[in-house]
Design brief:
The chain is of the alpha+beta class and 171 residues long. The protein has helices spanning 2-30, 71-75, 77-85, 107-115, 131-135, 163-170; strands spanning 31-33, 42-45, 50-52, 60-65, 91-97, 124-126, 143-147, 153-158. It is 38% helix and 22% strand.
Length: 171
């Protein structure tokens, strides 16, 4: 009986260690650090005009990747609108949607839908080719990308970030 108890205790210790290792690995897979650059990426705005991300060089950049079908994304747009309007921040805020990819509406339908919303401060760029998704290794929505002032990716993470978390991540 004592042998069974010892075996059971060793099994519990092994399982605890395994769970700890898996938790750490999962945490690192949700956040990546320093993986590439967004220099030279060409996107479109909601007026269908080409925008080069290079125009954002010189300041750190926070990017929210989101989709119109994502309730968590939509619930965070008020905060992004407020943060975008804040003149005292030392970084740029943009959002990127990928029409026709990952379940998002086609470009024309997304633009029509978005223009019916009342977010006047948010910069929305369209990644129709999935360039940002690929370079930043975006797996789902919402996702957050932090760029340095040369548009190098400092980090990416999944999930909602509130204003204070964004400010903390960008500093």
């Amino acid at each position: 009986m004592e042998a069974i108890n010892n075996l059971s205790k060793k099994g519990c210790i092994f399982m605890k260690k395994l769970i700890t290792i898996l938790t750490i690995m999962l945490g690192f897979s949700m956040t990546s650090f320093g993986s590439g650059t967004l220099q030279g990426v060409q996107l479109k705005d909601i007026n269908n005009k080409t925008v080069s991300l290079d125009k954002y060089k010189g300041k750190k950049v926070y990017i929210k990747m989101w989709a119109s079908w994502c309730p968590i994304c939509l619930s965070g747009l008020n905060e992004i609108n407020s943060l975008s309007a804040d003149k005292n921040k030392n970084f740029t805020v943009i959002t990127i949607v990928s029409p026709g990819l990952k379940g998002e509406k086609p470009t024309d339908k997304f633009i029509q839908w978005y223009k019916g919303l009342n977010y006047r401060n948010i910069t929305v760029l369209l990644d129709e080719k999935g360039t940002v998704i690929k370079r930043a290794k975006i797996l789902g929505y919402p996702s957050n990308i932090i760029l340095d002032s040369n548009l190098n990716i400092i980090s990416t993470s999944q999930g909602h970030m509130n204003i204070e978390q964004i400010k903390g991540a960008v500093k």
